[in-house]
Specification:
The complex is a heterodimer of chains A (248) and B (384).
Chain A lengths: L11 E12 L2 E7 L2 E3 L3 E5 L6 H8 L7 E6 L2 E3 L8 E4 L11 H11 L5 H10 L15 H13 L5 E5 L7 H16 L3 E6 L2 H4 L4 E6 L2 E6 L1 H8 L4 H14 L1
Parallel strand pairs in A: 4-9, 4-10, 7-8, 8-9
Antiparallel strand pairs in A: 1-2, 1-3, 1-5, 5-6, 10-11
Chain B lengths: L2 H17 L1 H27 L3 E5 L4 E2 L5 E2 L1 H10 L2 H4 L4 H4 E3 L2 H9 L5 E5 L3 H6 L7 E4 L4 H20 L25 H31 L2 H6 L5 H30 L8 H23 L5 H5 L2 H4 L1 H6 L11 H7 L3 H13 L9 H25 L2
Parallel strand pairs in B: 1-4, 1-5
Antiparallel strand pairs in B: 2-3, 5-6
Helix pairs in contact in B: 1-11, 2-9, 2-11, 3-8, 9-11, 9-12, 9-17, 11-12, 12-17, 12-18, 17-18
The chains are: A alpha/beta (248), B mainly alpha (384).
């Protein structure tokens, strides 16, 4: 549905320019310049309240920027039409617990104009949920609900997936499975923007952005970030960059 | 605006409610329970009427030699008639007593009404004059008063006129007239249409409020708005989903009241459903509007005293709007249920057609539009 002319020349899936958003006195996002090329897994890392969720909400049009602009798949947002090519998974499970897994997936598929039975079955199989498809979501375990939630976000085969802490509260085994899915999707050309505050997940991203107080304080591949900070793990690297930022 | 997305929302709501057995019970069974109870109470009330007759009238001797007395005739008429004859103490049900005695019995509650025939009443009837009789009521309970007047005047008008051919009696003048309804028409008949409208409004308002609140509290609203779905489509989907339940509910209540409670109705059912549909649109949007001001489901319920109760009291459900003081009548004219009630009564009881309820339909449409604007505004402000 996106005309070729609208495609960004550099094929950036996400591009923000001095994007800012404040809630009252709290500057949630401050002059953010974020560029995520197509097919990349970009990890947004930072402590709670660093503005990760707000960035994502701005990108899917749930919040309105105070200043600056954001482009998603070449279209300036907020733009409802582009959302059909975007999958968004909120931090909360955000499912209808009185519907079955399949009904939930079908509902979001239909809203995105992709409610065919094959797509729905495909999404359920992708997350290994086919056997529980007709169970009420309310009766599923937390881990399974996360999977349903993910299926709802990707059932319409979006070109961009925005996942807000998708592995929060998920056991290690499922977490590994999730990341395998993410990598497979990226290999297929899907762009993923994933927020997390778990640093060991960050290793699996192509590129990372460290966020603090609504700003990007450092950006690069996990390797680059470790090198530049002279630390052995990303947690240390983050603290180092945070200190440097604080001092500046 | 895409019908596909609207239908997806409507269908989702329907599957959700279908699975929620308590809500299904709430929608379909509770109205029947309440209507049944209401019918029972109202019919009991009018079944236990005890009437005393005070005759200051001696009757007349007709040229044929037969002597007739209106008082005797009255005892006869009332005694064999539904609400009076079915009284447990049939002896007391209808009898001739003195005025003092009667007033005493009225005060202690043994009698519901006194019919006082003035001197020369039979004479006036026989000679084609203007016979007038006095009805004395205890009067402290408006509901009871109405019930008594309703039953009594109906029976008197019918009974006195349908006398034997020998007594060609003229019409008797009453202060209260009931133009609509007939001999078999009782309180429930006049109330049923009003309650059908009320149930539709109440349940749709409540269900929408709670569903919409859940949509926000469980985070699905965020997710919904992160799809290409528009706010208009969400509202329309809700109207369709819950509208269907309202229509099915109305059909169930209608069938129940017509075939089980045996209320009498005339008029077009299509019009009844049109009124319902308009009312539902208003109720859905009012539900959405109010739910944005609630944080919990309990708080949605707390809006009932604000939104529902005043309409119950003032829209004609309990007291006819015309009987309200002017200030309250003005307030009542700002409530959608007032118009729905009037339209439903006009259609079901009086058998009036589209042209006679146009004003009410336009008013309901107006309310629907205002509620739609309100809900659209709150949706926009909440999720920019």
């Amino acid at each position: 549905m996106i005309a070729p002319a609208d495609k960004h020349p550099n094929d950036l899936s996400i591009e923000t320019v001095r994007l800012s958003k404040a809630f009252g006195r709290v500057q949630a996002v401050a002059d953010l310049d974020l560029r995520v090329p197509g097919g990349e897994i970009y990890g947004l890392l930072g402590p709670n309240g660093s503005g990760k969720t707000t960035v994502m909400r701005l990108l899917v049009g749930l919040a309105k920027a105070d200043s600056g602009e954001a482009r998603v798949l070449g279209r300036r947002v907020p733009d409802r039409a582009v959302l059909a090519e975007v999958g968004y998974m909120t931090q909360a499970e955000a499912l209808y617990s009185d519907l079955t897994a399949k009904e939930n997936v079908r509902f979001f598929a239909e809203l995105n104009g992709a409610g065919t039975p094959t797509r729905i079955q495909e999404a359920l199989e992708l997350i290994e949920l086919a056997s529980r498809a007709d169970d009420l979501v309310g009766s599923l375990s937390g881990g399974l609900r996360r999977r349903v939630s993910l299926a709802c976000a990707l059932v319409h085969r979006p070109r961009l997936l925005i996942l807000d802490e998708p592995t929060g509260g998920v056991d290690p085994q499922l977490r590994v499975a999730f990341w395998e899915h993410f990598r497979r999707l990226a290999d297929g050309g899907v762009t993923l923007l994933i927020s997390s505050h778990v640093m060991d997940e960050a290793e699996r991203c192509d590129r990372l952005g460290f966020m603090r107080d609504g700003r990007l304080i450092a950006e690069g591949s996990p390797e680059q970030l470790r090198e530049r900070s002279g630390t052995l793990d990303l947690e240390q690297a983050f603290l180092k960059f945070a200190e440097a930022e604080h001092a500046a | 605006m895409q019908p596909r997305r609207v239908l997806a929302i409507a269908r989702r709501l329907i599957s959700q409610i279908r699975r929620d057995h308590r809500s299904v019970g709430l929608i379909f069974v509770v109205p029947m329970l309440v209507m049944g109870l209401l019918g029972y109470i109202l019919r009991i009330e009018s079944g236990r009427l005890a009437i005393g007759i005070v005759a200051h009238d001696q009757g007349v001797v007709l040229p044929t030699g037969a002597r007739i007395a209106a008082a005797e005739r009255l005892v006869e008429i009332l005694g064999e008639r539904e609400p009076f004859a079915s009284a447990q103490d049939a002896q007391l049900a209808v009898r001739e007593i003195t005025l003092d005695e009667g007033e005493q019995l009225l005060r202690d509650g043994s009698l519901d009404a006194l019919v006082v025939l003035p001197e020369g009443f039979t004479q006036a009837m026989a000679q084609g004059g203007e016979p007038q009789l006095e009805i004395v009521l205890e009067g402290s309970n408006p509901g009871q008063r109405q019930a008594v007047m309703f039953a009594l005047t109906g029976a008197l008008a019918q009974g006195l006129q349908a006398g034997p051919a020998s007594a060609a009696l003229p019409a008797v003048e009453f202060e209260t007239r009931y133009i609509y309804g007939g001999e078999e028409f009782d309180f429930l008949d006049s109330f049923a249409p009003v309650y059908i409208a009320f149930f539709a409004f109440f349940f749709v308002f409540l269900l929408t409020g709670v569903s919409f609140l859940r949509e926000r509290s469980q985070g699905t609203m965020e997710r919904l708005l992160a799809t290409p779905v528009g706010r208009g489509e969400i509202v329309l989907g809700y109207m369709l989903g819950f509208g269907l339940f309202a229509v099915v509910q109305s059909a169930v209540i209608l069938l129940f009241t017509i075939y089980v409670l045996r209320i009498h109705h005339v008029g077009s059912l299509a019009l009844v459903f049109l009124v319902e549909a308009l009312l539902t649109v208003g109720a859905v949007n009012l539900g959405i509007f109010f739910s944005t001001y609630a944080r919990t489901e309990l708080q949605v319920v707390q809006f009932i005293p604000i939104v529902i109760v005043p309409q119950v009291l003032l829209s004609g459900l309990i007291v006819r709007v015309e009987n309200l003081p002017l200030g309250l009548q003005i307030l009542s004219s700002l409530m959608p249920l007032t118009y729905a009630n009037r339209a439903m009564t006009d259609v079901m009881v009086r058998g009036l057609g589209l042209s006679e309820v146009t004003l009410e339909l336009v008013a309901l449409l107006g309310f629907a539009v205002v509620a739609l604007l309100l809900s659209a505004l709150t949706l926009r402000r909440q999720f920019v």
